[in-house]
Amino acid sequence: MSATLDPVTVAAPTLPVNTGSSVAMPEMLLDPGMCLTLRPMKYPQFYDMFRDGIKNTWTVEEVDFSTDLVDLRSKMSPAEIHTIKRLVAFFATGDSIVSNNLVLNLYKHVNSPEARLYLSRQLFEEAVHVQFYLTLLDNYVPDHDERAAAFAAVENIPSIQQKAEFCMKWMDSIEALDTLQTQQQRRDFLLNLICFASCVEGLFFFAAFAYVYFFRSKGLLHGLASGTNWVFRDESCHIEFAFEVVRVVREQEPELWDAELERQIVQMMTEAIDAEAQFADDLLSGGVAGLSTRDMRAYLGYVADSRLVRLGMEPHFKTKNPFSFMELQDVQELTNFFERRVSAYQTAVAGEVAFGDDF
């Protein structure tokens, strides 16, 4: 179900239509058309991101989950297992939502062959993520009926359904648009992209990563954590690409960015935190020692503020990171991330995936 966003208070005049060939070099990134010109490059930074993505290739077969099954069977409480099963159910549907948005709402509007190369690479990475979570569900949830319910989480798990409805509200507004002809349509595109990067990939998934790294800090689920390391890096690159698109559009069309747009972004982030906090209530409903819904909401505010600052806005939620294990993760995974070659991607992990143990 889609919902209409609040209208922008300033009238949005129709933009001039690009009447040249669809393959011609557009003046602006969101001009209609399908530019094919890679020489000379207008946006080499997107091509560099594409090349970095190629270096960062990994496969699910490199991840060894065998000790995870031992942890789930003999080392974790029923409440902790509930947390993990809910988490994996979200993962299984979340990346499909991301992939659909890439194909239906983003690729056709970013008129840069360099950027489309990156988006094609991102779609491949999302497919690998889906395979990773599919493998997790097939092995973490051996019961056929329970597994089927997990794959249909957006229909039968209310806390995940609410997150899906949030995505549809903020991202479906441009699905029917073939071109962005008005300022209002381009603002809607920016809201979609910012929701995509800041709320879905940058908040929902980063909150999920926090649960994974919490269990890793207790010496549990090393296979899940190992695969999540790679997903974490991929998602960080996806967010950086989206914010670079926003930066370019804002530089080219500064009139699109106004106080009303910033108000909508804050409203969107607030709704995302509320949806994720309800998910935390579900995940932690059995009580998990060392995790609390209060701390998770504080962490969500901390992450949301980091996205706002990256967009050039003021922090709104003003909370601190309560999770020291995530500060360590930030140091391990993101220090000079975009300036260094990630060796963990370049060499396959030794060994094969093994699922011989009974769950």
Describe the structure.
The protein is mainly α. It has a single domain (69-336), classed as Orthogonal Bundle (Ribonucleotide Reductase, subunit A). Helices cover 64% and strands 0% of the residues. It has 13 helices and no strands. α3 runs antiparallel to α4 (113-140), α4 runs antiparallel to α9 and α7 (158-171) runs antiparallel to α10. The protein is globular, with a radius of gyration of 21 Å. The two termini are 37 Å apart. 40% of the residues are buried.
Distance between the termini: 37 Å
User: Overall 3D geometry?
Assistant: globular
Largest sheet: none
**What's the architecture in CATH terms?**
Orthogonal Bundle
What is the mean predicted local confidence, pLDDT?
Answer: 85
* DSSP strand tally: 0
- Total domain modules: 1
**What are the low-pLDDT stretches, counting only 5+ consecutive residues below 50?**
1-14, 16-21, 330-359
- Helical content, roughly? 55-70%
Order of helices and strands: HHHHHHHHHHHHH
CATH fold category name: Ribonucleotide Reductase, subunit A
Strand content: under 5%
| The first-level CATH class name | Mainly Alpha
Structural class: mainly alpha
* Helical run tally: 13
Radius of gyration: 21 Å
Provide the CATH superfamily.
Answer: Ribonucleotide Reductase, subunit A
